Amino acid sequence: MKVSIPTRDENGLEGVVEQHFGKAPTYTLIDTETNQVTVIPNTSEHMGGVGLPPEYLHKNGVNIMLCGGLGFKAVTMFESYGIKVFVGAEGTVKDTYEAWKAGKLHSATAENSCSEHGHEEHHHH
């Protein structure tokens, strides 16, 4: 599998996690089988390029996205490309990757990412 983490630089495992995935200048990819680390530039629309991050990452073979946190729509978009999202990433890429492997990051599946807002939507008077 390939894990992706939004990052501020090209320092690989020592890179700093960018909390806003759309604004990340780079994405650091880790192949979980070979532990090979690749850093790719974020060329999505936010940075003046084309395509949305989920589509771009999907094309790069990413299966899992680790980030600080993101909105319900973004989670749904990633899931539509078959990418699972985990939130709670912080520190360096290595910190985040180790935390994910240890099961410390939370899955941001569409069902539970915005549970506190989910109830209000059904009670419009």
TrEMBL record:
Superkingdom classification of source: Archaea
Pfam families to which the protein is assigned, alphabetical: Nitro_FeMo-Co (PF02579)
SUPFAM superfamilies noted in UniProt: Nitrogenase accessory factor-like (SSF53146)
InterPro entries, per database record: Di-Nase_FeMo-co_biosynth, DiNase_FeMo-co_biosyn_sf, MTH1175_dom
Protein name as catalogued: Dinitrogenase iron-molybdenum cofactor biosynthesis domain-containing protein
Domain (Dinitrogenase iron-molybdenum cofactor biosynthesis): residue spans on this chain: 14-101
